[in-house]
Amino acid sequence: MKPLPKGSSKLLNAWAFYDWANSVYSLVIASAVFPIFYGALFEIAETETVVFLGGEIRSTPLISYTTAAAFLVVSIISPLLSGVADYIGNKKIFMKFFCYLGALSCIGLYFFSLEHIYISLLLYFLALIGFWGSLVYYNSYLPDIAFPEQQDRISAKGYSLGYIGSVLLLVFNLAMVMKPSWFGLSEGGEGSMKAMQISFITVGVWWIGFAQYAFYFLPKGTTGGKKMSRRILFNGFRELRGVYRSLSENIKLKRYLAAFFVYSMAVQTVMLVATYFGEQEIGWGGADEKTMGLIISILIIQLVAVVGATLTSRASARFGNIPVLIFINLVWVGICVVAYFISAPIQFYITAGFVGLVMGGIQSLSRSTYSKFLPETEDTTSYFSFYDVAEKIGIVIGMLLYGFIDHITGSMRNSVLFLVLFFGIGVFLLFRVPRKKEF
Q1: 298-311: per-residue pLDDT in tens?
Q2: 3-state secondary structure string, the chain?
């Protein structure tokens, strides 16, 4: 098939549609069903701890540390593979590899159990690597397929499609969990647990299936075209070093990246632990009420996030990207402070609504702002690899600190309050970004 021209609607829609495909991971696995399933395993076993690496550890620090370890691996391997992708000129093959790794690992989560905690956490670990690894290449396509004036809109459209698609699958999974008899499963807790396990399979099938549309239309890449050699294995790190050196000549991009590193650390941590926080710290009244309440909260976040991403795109067009990012970070400060005090379900629902409003907006606007600040170059994968590595290292630090504070204090509330510091520093650093009127 002849490659589609840059800026064509079919190409832009195909790129955005990958969000529809892979966002079911971030909703069902990272945010909604898996955290509930994970907590239920410990409740059924009537324990809060598990023996791991020769010692006992509580459930929430364990998953926080595992998540941090997975992001650390992603941050290390991304430069290796992005350098290879740029050199041989086929980033799509790497995007496919991580897509299939993540989707098949999600299917494997069907067998997750405390009795086989090592292999279970490995599947969780690989699913996370697959999801975030594919995003390195997905994000790097943005300046390749869209002109600068199209990037805010198509970035927001991608997130919106992701939210809508993932909500559709979550509603189906919710029906299975709450009414397992409708799907030929036994009633009660056993049927609901089986339904959650089946939902992990639906994520993998959905992800692989719908990704094919994006893979069909996306080009292989815009650079490279050379054969593989041993020398280029560390080419990605050399390219990252080149990107880092280039920042001295691009103060705007350098200061923006510093701000992004700090506030993204907090944003991603909140998103990754929100359901675990609700499961542990909110008084739901019973197991069924907890399951329903947590999934409703995630649905609220996802649905409101569609509106938030759209409003943020429009606000950035009127007020500029940086001022809008400053405002959103200030809203995040308020959310973290409020979260420290909440305990009732209705309070959690309201907080979830505000999280959704700013979650989609800050993600899509951060991505498109970075794309706009890039210098004229065909080496987009290396620049976006640098962006992703910064984000992942931030997540590693954020999750480790969050898990450590949770571990030593016995409460996730203290960890959430600590994140206020990162949002505050992010605001300060955003004020230091030089900008013209359009930014």
Answers
A1: 888 877 887 887 88
A2: CCCCCCCCHHHHHHHHHHHHHHHHHHHHHCCCHHHHHHHHHHHHCCCCEEEECCEEEEHHHHHHHHHHHHHHHHHHHHHHHHHHHHHHCCHHHHHHHHHHHHHHHHHHHHHCCCCCHHHHHHHHHHHHHHHHHHHHHHHHCHHHHCCHHHHHHHHHHHHHHHHHHHHHHHHHHHHHHHCHHHHCCCCHHHHHHHHHHHHHHHHHHHHHHHHHHHHHHCCCCCCCCCCCCHHHHHHHHHHHHHHHHHHHHCHHHHHHHHHHHHHHHHHHHHHHHHHHHHHHHCCCCCHHHHHHHHHHHHHHHHHHHHHHHHHHHHHHHHHCHHHHHHHHHHHHHHHHHHHHHCCCHHHHHHHHHHHHHHHHHHHHHHHHHHHHHCCCCCCHHHHHHHHHHHHHHHHHHHHHHHHHHHHHHCCHHHHHHHCHHHHHHHHHHHHCCCCCCCC
In this prediction, residue 130 carries a pLDDT of 95
* Domain carrying residue 174: 13-224+241-431
pLDDT at site 32: 81
What values do phi and psi take at 373, rounded to 5?
Answer: -80, -10
Of 358, 375, 364, 426, nearest in space to 398 by CA: 426
Residue 439 lies in a domain: no
What domain count does the chain have? 1
Would you state the structure tokens that stand for residue 317, as one six-digit string? 């067009």
Supply the pTM of this predicted model: 0.77
Residue 86 belongs to some domain of the structure: yes
- Positions of the chain with pLDDT lower than 50, given as ranges: 223-224, 437-438
What tokens were used for 316?
């950035």
Residue 4 contacts residue 79 (beta carbons within 8 Å): no
Looking up tokens 């090592």 gives 118
Q: Which two tokens stand for residue 242?
A: 């080149």
Q: What is the pLDDT of residues 117-142, one digit of tens each?
A: 999 999 999 999 999 889 878 887 88
| 1 found inside a domain | no
Decide if 32 is inside a domain.
yes
Q: Where residue 272 sits, what CATH number does that domain have?
A: 1.20.1250.20
